């Protein structure tokens, strides 16, 4: 399977699936699965202490806010904690103690509830209070608490200070050991905050970090990031004992076929925050595969855990760890497959599309940068059906050069921006993709090798996992 960038996944998260009654839907934007409410196992005094402690911290952090707003936020904190206790199925005194160490925990409840795996982990008290901060130019970055199983590390953070809004975002991530040892990882940010975070000067969000398979997460880590021009660094411990024995592995070693192409499923690893499934193209495949359609894990009761992210040969699913299914099956409805060797030939001077795999692909605009050093190309894919249209396509590989009419090679200058449009009246999808190249006096036309492109085969598969 093709490796994802942060915005180039082999299996893109753009399936707009509706939640079913028996489905554990991991799509955090739509996951509103109701949780059965059980008796809350916490003494009244402990509950009062949780609420009192949260309110005291709220007062300390809001001294410069008018009394009326302070009272409103304090009331909101009480309500949020009460709702939290109602949402999570089990709150023990140990969990209550963790909550007391995390000021404004209610700000993160929605972020947890959107993700069925994180919600399940929270139900089982699988979080560690951190409370480390770094202040730069009057802005403070704080990691309040984490969830990690050694393979996935989720940081729940806040940004506070002048100019911070709900649209503020982090960039340029790096995680390493306390002694500078490298930790290869991939990073995802969601750009979604608590709806209650409307006041200027603060933002609450999370960073999802996938540790590269085969890499060990150390006992202490350093996390570096940026917000605009401000660079932050925090260091914190990771309690390995919380997850040291929480790992299950199943031997699979099976091959399945779709459209005459073969794929191998390796050993599956299940931890509290993810299910890791190696899926590789077999030697001899003649087509390019850009993902599997409706890929999921299904248990004996019909509960489904859909894929969460992917790399070149490893797919991550939302975790079934705490559900403890007796049987688990990998299922898919087909694969996104296209012939290899396809090209796009265009004349950027005359704005002409000379050669494409089909009439759906064309160059629609070119625009030089203000300094004249770069040229932005806007390319459109039109006429896609629903199965094709819900998946975003990155047409070109950044590491593959394009050539001019004289055979001179050049490389893309920067990433791609994807904007998908849907016309429901005609039931077709359109996608516009922008690329930037050096603005040179090319000998026209230019030839680009296509990496991803619409095309699929429908064929149901079922691979027993356990």
TrEMBL record:
Domain DUF5643: 249-347
InterPro entries per UniProt: DUF4179, DUF5643
Domain DUF4179: 67-160
Keywords associated with the record: Membrane, Transmembrane, Transmembrane helix
Biased composition (Basic and acidic residues): 1-22
Pfam family membership, one: DUF4179
Region Disordered, residue ranges: 1-25
TM helices/strands, residue ranges: 70-88
Superkingdom of origin organism: Bacteria
Protein name: DUF4179 domain-containing protein
Species this protein is from: Paenibacillus terricola
């Amino acid at each position: 399977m093709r490796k994802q960038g942060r915005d180039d996944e082999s299996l893109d998260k753009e399936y707009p699936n509706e939640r079913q009654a028996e489905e554990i839907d991991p799509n955090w934007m739509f996951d509103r699965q109701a949780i059965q409410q059980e008796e809350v196992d916490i003494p009244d005094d402990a509950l009062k202490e949780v609420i009192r402690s949260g309110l005291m911290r709220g007062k300390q952090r809001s001294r410069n806010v008018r009394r009326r707003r302070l009272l409103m936020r304090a009331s909101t904190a009480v309500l949020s904690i009460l709702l939290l206790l109602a949402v999570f199925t089990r709150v023990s005194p140990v969990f209550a103690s963790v909550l007391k160490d995390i000021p404004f925990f209610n700000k993160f409840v929605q972020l947890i509830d959107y993700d069925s795996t994180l919600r399940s982990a929270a139900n089982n008290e699988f979080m560690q209070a951190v409370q480390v901060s770094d202040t730069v130019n009057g802005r403070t970055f704080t990691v309040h608490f984490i969830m990690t199983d050694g393979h996935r590390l989720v940081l729940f953070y806040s940004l506070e200070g002048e100019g911070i809004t709900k649209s503020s975002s982090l960039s340029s991530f790096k995680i390493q050991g306390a002694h500078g040892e490298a930790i290869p990882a991939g990073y995802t940010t969601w750009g979604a905050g608590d709806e209650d975070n409307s006041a200027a000067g603060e933002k609450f969000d999370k960073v999802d970090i996938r540790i590269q398979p085969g890499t060990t997460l150390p006992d202490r880590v350093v996390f570096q990031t940026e917000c605009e021009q401000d660079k932050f660094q925090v260091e914190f411990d990771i309690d390995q004992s919380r997850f040291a024995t929480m790992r299950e592995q199943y031997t699979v070693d099976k091959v399945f076929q779709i459209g005459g192409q073969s794929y191998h499923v390796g050993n599956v690893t299940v931890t509290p925050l993810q299910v890791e499934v190696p899926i590789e193209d077999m030697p001899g495949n003649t087509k390019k595969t850009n993902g599997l359609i409706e890929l999921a894990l299904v248990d004996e009761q019909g509960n489904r855990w859909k894929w969460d992210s992917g790399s070149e040969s490893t797919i991550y699913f939302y975790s079934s760890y705490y559900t403890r299914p007796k049987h688990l099956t990998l299922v898919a409805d087909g694969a996104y497959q296209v012939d290899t060797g396809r090209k796009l030939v265009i004349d950027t001077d005359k704005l002409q599309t000379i050669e494409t795999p089909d009439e759906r692909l064309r160059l629609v605009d070119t625009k030089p940068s203000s300094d004249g050093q770069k040229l932005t190309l806007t390319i459109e894919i039109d006429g896609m059906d629903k199965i094709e249209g819900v998946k975003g396509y990155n047409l070109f590989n950044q590491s593959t050069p394009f050539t001019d009419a004289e055979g001179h090679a050049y490389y893309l200058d920067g990433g791609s921006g994807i904007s998908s449009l849907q016309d429901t009246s005609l039931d077709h999808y359109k996608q516009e993709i922008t690329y930037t190249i050096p603005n040179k006096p090319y000998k026209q036309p230019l030839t680009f090798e296509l990496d991803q492109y619409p095309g699929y085969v429908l064929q149901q598969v079922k691979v027993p996992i356990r």
